[in-house]
């Protein structure tokens, strides 16, 4: 029996793109997750909607969940699977099953049988203001792309951009004269974000260099050594190298950490939470509110470090 699910997965992704306006990155994640479930179904002898509806019940669902966790552990570097990953994979499947029911491929609401894993609530990792200043001032030795890198990180931190938003910027996205950048975020939602004077200055220097070297047909703002649009992987590599050269910061953060730093520093300096929500492009205020936990943690750490009645640290045994 041939596998009937690949064309249904593509139909589902086409629906998400057309009706929900999901980005290509989100659709890629949906495809990957659903193909994992498809392989698990094949191992259970389920290759079409009819067998899925009649056979996929509690016992087989538990079996598939166990197999999924096992695969995720093997792929992970630490062998530990985050609850967020599992919750995302289950949520993807739940959406797909409801799509199958809505399009009358199945009659039963199988999605209700799926467990709802609890999600780990992680405190966002960020750099302290002094460390951020060091990162932005840092210059790579013998780097011909330092002007670009400085402009990139000034913009990502100064305007709170996701790495995907930054690499997808076009030259025409910038309004340097008025200090604004036009950003396309999740769900292809467009927003205008202000830029700091430092970012504008760095971008002016970079654009002068870029415009001389790039082809007139090249629309991308940030270019790699081949004069092509830089990738998210490339940005991660550049940030990792930059942080490793810093003296005062030992922990590595992802490019998203620059966005976390942006939000945390604004909140610490009295910015309104709803204003931060608009700048970040969050659909829900609850997503933005996690930064209040970061700010409270920083206050508590400082309190425990400086209070005269703090508990002394135990002596290390020799």
Low-confidence stretches: none
Q: Main sheet: which strands, in order across?
A: 1-2-3
Determine the strand fraction and express it as a percent band: under 5%
Q: Sketch the topology as an H/E string, one letter per element.
A: HHHHHHHHEEEHHHHHH
Q: Major sheet, described briefly?
A: 3 strands, antiparallel
CATH topology heading of the largest domain: hpI Integrase, Chain A
- Helicity, in percent? 55-70%
Q: Could you explain the architecture of this structure?
A:
- The chain is mainly alpha-helical.
- The chain folds into 2 domains: 5-113, DNA polymerase, domain 1 (Orthogonal Bundle); 129-306, Intergrase catalytic core (hpI Integrase, Chain A, Orthogonal Bundle), CATH 1.10.443.
- 57% of the residues lie in helices and 4% in strands.
- It has a 3-stranded antiparallel sheet, with no helix packed on it.
- Strand 1 and strand 2 form a beta hairpin.
- Helix 7 runs antiparallel to helix 9, helix 7 packs across helix 11 (256-268) and helix 11 (256-268) packs across helix 14.
- The protein is elongated, with a radius of gyration of 24 Å.
- The termini are far apart.
- The model has no long low-confidence stretch (mean pLDDT 82).
SSE diagram, text form:
Elements: H1 5-19, H2 24-43, H3 49-55, H4 58-75, H5 83-102, H6 129-137, H7 146-159, H8 163-167, E1 174-175, E2 180-184, E3 190-194, H9 197-213, H10 232-244, H11 256-268, H12 273-280, H13 285-288, H14 290-306
Antiparallel strand pairs: 1-2, 2-3
Helix pairs in contact: 1-2, 2-5, 7-9, 7-11, 11-14
């Amino acid at each position: 029996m041939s596998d009937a699910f690949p064309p249904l997965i593509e139909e589902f992704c086409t629906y998400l793109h057309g009706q929900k306006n999901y980005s290509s990155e989100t659709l890629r994640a949906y495809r990957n997750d659903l193909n994992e479930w498809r392989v698990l179904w094949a191992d259970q002898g389920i290759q079409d909607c009819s067998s899925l509806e009649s056979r996929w019940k509690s016992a087989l669902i538990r079996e598939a969940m166990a197999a999924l966790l096992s695969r995720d552990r093997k792929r992970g570097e630490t062998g530990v699977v985050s609850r967020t990953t599992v919750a995302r994979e289950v949520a993807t499947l739940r959406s797909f099953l409801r799509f199958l029911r809505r399009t009358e491929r199945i009659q039963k609401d199988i999605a209700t049988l799926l467990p709802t894993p609890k999600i780990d609530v992680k405190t966002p990792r960020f750099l302290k203001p002094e460390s951020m200043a060091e990162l932005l001032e840092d210059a790579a030795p013998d780097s011909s792309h330092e002007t670009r890198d400085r402009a990139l990180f000034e913009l990502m931190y100064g305007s709170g951009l996701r790495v995907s938003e930054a690499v997808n910027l076009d030259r025409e996205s910038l309004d340097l004269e008025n200090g604004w950048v036009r950003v396309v975020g999740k769900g292809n939602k467009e927003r205008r974000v202000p830029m700091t004077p430092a970012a504008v200055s760095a971008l002016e220097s970079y654009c002068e260099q870029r415009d001389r070297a790039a082809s007139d047909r090249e629309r991308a703002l940030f270019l790699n050594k081949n004069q092509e649009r830089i990738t998210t992987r490339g940005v991660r590599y550049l940030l990792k190298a930059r942080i490793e050269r810093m003296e005062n910061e030992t922990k590595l953060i992802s490019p998203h950490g620059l966005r976390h730093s942006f939000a945390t520093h604004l909140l610490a300096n009295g910015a309104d939470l709803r204003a931060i929500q608009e700048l970040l492009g969050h659909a829900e205020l609850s997503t933005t509110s996690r930064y209040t936990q970061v700010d409270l943690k920083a206050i508590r750490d400082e309190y425990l470090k400086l209070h005269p009645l703090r508990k002394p640290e135990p002596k290390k045994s020799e």
